[in-house]
Amino acid sequence: MIVLLQRVSSARVEIGGETVGAIGPGLLALVCAEPQDTESVCQRMLDKILKLRIFGDEQGKMNRSVQDVRGGLLLVSQFTLAADTRHGNRPGFTAAAPPELGRALFDRFVALARARHPQVETGRFGAEMAVHLVNDGPVTIPLRMG
Fold first, then answer.
1. Is 79 helix (H, G, I), strand (E, B) or coil?
2. pLDDT digits (tens, 9 = 90+) for 33-89
3. Sequential DSSP letters for 121-132
4. At 136, is the secondary structure helix, strand, or coil?
């Protein structure tokens, strides 16, 4: 599983001009499932995201998690994180999970997140989405687990 995590002041996902998910301060997670991923991988990735200390404390040091600051979590599926750009100029996406598996793993990841965190919003799997965000910091952290 690949996640590109961004600390945000706000973020939202629109489909056809309609907002389908939005948060204030918190984390935007672009999520890519890979063929070998399992529920265990989803759980470990969620643990990392919820506990990662990338929010400032009173001294401005990154010492608080999204749970500590009661921030939102916006989860957006994005298979393009698995892009292979080693050859030619058009990326290949064979390293991403096939759509059926990708949807099942993303849905499971969302369900696990909703069971453990009070504010979880999402985009829509497979949809053409416009993702709007204000990156706070900026802080962008790539995560990979498998």
1. helix
2. 999 999 999 999 999 999 999 999 999 999 999 999 999 999 999 999 999 999 999
3. EE--TTS--EEE
4. strand
Which amino acid type is present at position 84? D
Q: What pLDDT is attached to residue 77?
A: 98
pLDDT score at 146: 81
Backbone angles phi, psi at 94, to 5 degrees: -70, -15
How far is the C-alpha of 42 from the C-alpha of 34, rounded, in Å? 11
Kindly report the backbone phi and psi dihedral angles of residue 28, in degrees, each rounded to the nearest multiple of 5, phi listed first. Answer: -100, 125
Q: What is the CA radius of gyration of the chain?
A: 15
Euclidean distance between CA atoms 121 and 14, whole angstroms: 12
Query: CA-CA distance, 46 to 42, in Å (whole number)?
Result: 6
Give the three-state DSSP class for 53: coil
- The answer to whether 129 and 80 are in contact (CB under 8 A) is no
94: exposed, middle or buried (Cβ count in 10 Å: 0-12, 13-18, 19+): exposed
pLDDT 10s digits, 65-74: 999 999 999 9
Cα–Cα distance for residue pair 7/85, rounded to 1 Å: 26
Residues marked as catalytic: 78-80
